[in-house]
Amino acid sequence: MWTGLLLMVALAAGEPLEDARQSFAEGRYAEAEQQALQAAATSPSGAALYLVGLARFRTGRPAEALEALDAAGRAPDAPEPDAWNFNRGACLYALGRFEEAERAFANVRADAPLARLAWINAGFAALDAGAPERARMWAERAAPGASTDEALQVEELRALLTPAPPANEADEAYQQGLASFDTGHFEEARAHFLRAATQQPDSGRARLMAGASAYRLGARTEAREDLTSALKLPLGPLDRRTAHQYLDLLAPGLRVSGPGVWASASVGPGFDSNVLQVGIAARDVSGASADQETASTFAEASVGITARMRLSDRLFAAFTYSGSQRAYAQSAVRDYSLQLHRATVAVEWEAARRVRVGLLAGGDLFFTGLADFRGLQASVSANAWLAWDATEHTSTRLDLGVAGKDGLGEEFAYLTGPRLDATLSEEWRLHASSLTAWYRYRQDRIGTLEQAIASEDTAIASQAYVIPFAFASHAVGASGRWRPLPWLTASLDAEVEWRRYLEDSSLRVVTTDGATETWNERRRQDVRFALGPAVSARLSDHFRLSARYDLLVNRSNIDMRLTDEDTAACEGAEHLCHVYDYTNGNYEKHGVLLQLEAVW
């Protein structure tokens, strides 16, 4: 059985306990206990006694931990009852008081975030108390709606409730393995299960439980080998599903979360310091007056659905749809409000041991504006990848992608054209963290915009900016993800891109005598830096609160605010000077978004 005190030291605020909480969070439990005892002596409180109990349990003293928890429960500021009951149950179970442990777990309220885990632990306690029918009742109660980890524990409990009848040495070794597994002695359990598998080579269940034990020990390679071997042997439907669930937890790629259907919806406020740079394409092409308001608050709402399917033991598929609407509050930039719809279908095949091949097809549809709501751009894309999982902790992946884009309507015709991508990435995975570094080459061959502008020069009949948007770029970046606590996730994305446009921009001038001249012909080059830290906290089984900050810094040789060393250049035949540039290419964009997300 898995049981243990939660890292839920969400106690009442108070300065004397801060050092104790910090010590506990860093794993210095003996020090945390002493600091909490000192805090309790200074100002007696249920919070201090509760932390004493948590620390004592972590140092292997469940009887003393239970004493402190009970004292905390009698205090005027008693701890939150659900976590308190759960942790009392853990202490009672460790002391072998199984019926009392079952009652403590049962006292966790049905609508509490801990409820399902409490029911599972109540089932293990009932089983060890010699009440298999009650244990079976708890397993059936916990199964509907269980997460992947919870479902695995439910299946382990069910497996203990339906053991094969011992008839020979292999069965005896298997039963010994179950007993060790139940008490958390996974290394000993694995040895028993491997002995059972050796004595009875066609026992898929023995090999399955050997793999489950290896997984609990963190031996990912051995776990994968055992579970893969188990699937080649006779297994019942329930055992086969359990083996797949463990392999899903061990696998990268599409199958990492296992089959299922998830839906989500989110809403939240945000702030954008430079709305004119919207990400899909630079639309700041009108001179970018320094007096124009470019910052705005916004509201954003989104919905999404993901379905993952196991088509065979080595073939997986996923379908995703997401839709979002961002609406800016500032009237001057409200037309830049953006709506996005995106759908993808992907398949991934485990072509060989540690080799994955995948294909993805998708489409995007962008709309812009609010009062003047209209189509902006549509695109279809295809992506293929080859991934090599060199070890259980590293993967190398090559992605090749192509997309065809279409600017919707004459206004956005310049957004039409193909895009080609090639990306090489390396991922490192370790426990609750991962890091991916990548390099990307991109060609975005969308079109050219010609934008007429007025002139006060009486010698000029008309003039227009010629603004090419096609570019080629090299980019490097990294993304990291860290889960310091089961309910808390932090991430960081960083990217540097060197972008060179494929054609020259210029100012096309028609004089009153009918001559056409090309002024300020210049090839644009940009260096772009993007940074995006984010943090997400799980509030309950279905709700999550996220905050994200995005920074984009663009440095360009196109900027009408730049000065030229040779001031006479503006008067030459080519008028090669920055005053005739079409935009301010040196800018920064800051974005902040706070979202409340519901997931089913």
Strand percentage, roughly? Answer: 35-45%
Radius of gyration: 31 Å
Number of domains: 2
Would you tell me which CATH topology of the largest domain applies? Answer: Porin
Class from secondary-structure proportions: alpha+beta
| Biggest beta sheet attributes | 14 strands, antiparallel, barrel
The CATH homologous superfamily of the largest domain corresponds to: monomeric porin ompg
Supply the CATH class of the largest domain.
Mainly Beta
Any idea what the CATH architecture of the largest domain is?
Beta Barrel
- Span between termini: 27 Å
Task: Please tell me about this protein's structure.
This protein has two domains: 15-192, Serine Threonine Protein Phosphatase 5, Tetratricopeptide repeat; 254-599, Porin. It is 30% helix and 39% strand. The protein contains 14 helices and 16 strands. It has helices at residues 18-25, 29-42, 46-58, 62-74, 81-94, 98-106, 115-128, 132-142, 148-161, 169-182, 186-199, 204-217, 220-231, 237-250; strands spanning 260-272, 296-312, 315-328, 338-352, 355-368, 374-388, 394-407, 417-430, 433-444, 448-453, 460-468, 471-485, 488-511, 516-538, 543-556, 587-599. It has a 14-stranded antiparallel beta barrel. Helix 6 runs antiparallel to helix 7 (115-128), helix 8 (132-142) runs antiparallel to helix 9 and helix 12 packs parallel to helix 14 (237-250). The chain is elongated and about 105 Å long. It starts with 17 loop residues before the first helix and ends with a strand.
